[in-house]
């Protein structure tokens, strides 16, 4: 049961407003309804947003919570003066003290993504995505020298989502390679990876969780059996320990947490730029 | 030249702090140095962060700007009392007025990603990523009924990054299909897609930009020539118009803007949940 609605109003995508607003709301034991209103970039659309917010408030009998990241002052003024919700103006709250500290005026330009499509950073992201797709699941050994990160781990330990996240959000060309029985028999990393050991990062996972994930794909298979998962995980961990590569357990971690840890270990300069 | 450093301090990944802080900083004509300090979740680490921030401030002779999304009060207090930077406590600023409005206390739990890895939403994201990988670039016609979105467009119009973004960030199973000369000759969408017309969204792009992108991959080719790009784009747009499918131009848009527009058009309920 939702008893209250939270709006995220932005003249851009509203992703920043929603990400940040959700992090704040996560501090409360409540399940509000979420409504993202993106691209509210004209006075007309602002009036429309106000109507929608006030209508919701009347229907629920409770003030809607309204997070805004509006930089267009005309639009913001319409919301400020007409909206009966509780307004949390995320930009204004911090921009004004910053103007004082920095001694410069903000320029009220819309959207952190605007016109990024022509930028170098943006084409790096796209190039990294293409690289990671071509090097998913050990598909290619070509140009491993060009990789920024090489992930290894048993099948279904989280390599593919992590690779794509590192490519898409951090612009890192990320290859990933499964560790398979042949590697365990040789007791060595796949030979093609040896020269690139410094870029290798390992992912491991609790056997119980791995077995559950694999069972969803191939129920009742030997591949998914707890016994086999235990063997594979223990072989893989022993190998990573011998090879002296860094690794972490993905069992209770989100892609974002895994990616941030990999940045700290392999690319700390991506956290300082 | 950087003249001032901005820190993003979090007891989680710091992604929220950095995303939001950057959106605010984008309002100013300045290029500060960025330092993200993730996983600051103990008093010891807080003291370490304080030393780093103050050292930077002394070296630069300017107050560092410090965005924090700390929920651990002990950690926050160390930063508040010891740090000589300009502290922007993003959570505290909004959490306190929200406690008043909601009439409940916040629980100071760390991290919007904590322990999400076992949740249904999280496994939906992973499943969507796998689906999108298997249905990238028209690789498979199987289970198109299971797709949430089907993107079409000429080669290099932005389909792959958009598909992966929709899967990873929105949990939407997104297939993508290139429109190729055979389709233009038949003057019809690829036949396998016909039954799923309602889920199709088209991407187009300015021929000049397309030619530039293609030239980076295959310089001097007919494929990349401006003339060929013009023909393909005009055929593709004519076909999408005839088929009555919705489409947009990706030329100056970021993945995030494209994805948000697709949500508005095909999955508005994903913006309201």
From TrEMBL, chains A, B:
Q: Where on this chain does ADP bind?
A: 153-160
Q: What InterPro entries does this protein map onto?
A: Kinase-pyrophosphorylase (IPR005177), PSRP (IPR026530)
Catalysed reactions, as listed in the record: [pyruvate, water dikinase] + ADP = [pyruvate, water dikinase]-phosphate + AMP + H(+); [pyruvate, water dikinase]-phosphate + phosphate + H(+) = [pyruvate, water dikinase] + diphosphate
Assigned EC number = 2.7.11.33, 2.7.4.28
GO MF entry, a single one: kinase activity
Does the keyword Kinase feature in the UniProt annotation? yes
Q: Which UniProt keywords apply?
A: Kinase, Nucleotide-binding, Serine/threonine-protein kinase, Transferase
| Protein family (similarity comment) | Belongs to the pyruvate, phosphate/water dikinase regulatory protein family. PSRP subfamily.
* Function in brief: Bifunctional serine/threonine kinase and phosphorylase involved in the regulation of the phosphoenolpyruvate synthase (PEPS) by catalyzing its phosphorylation/dephosphorylation.
Entry protein name: Putative phosphoenolpyruvate synthase regulatory protein
From which source organism is this entry? Verminephrobacter aporrectodeae subsp. tuberculatae
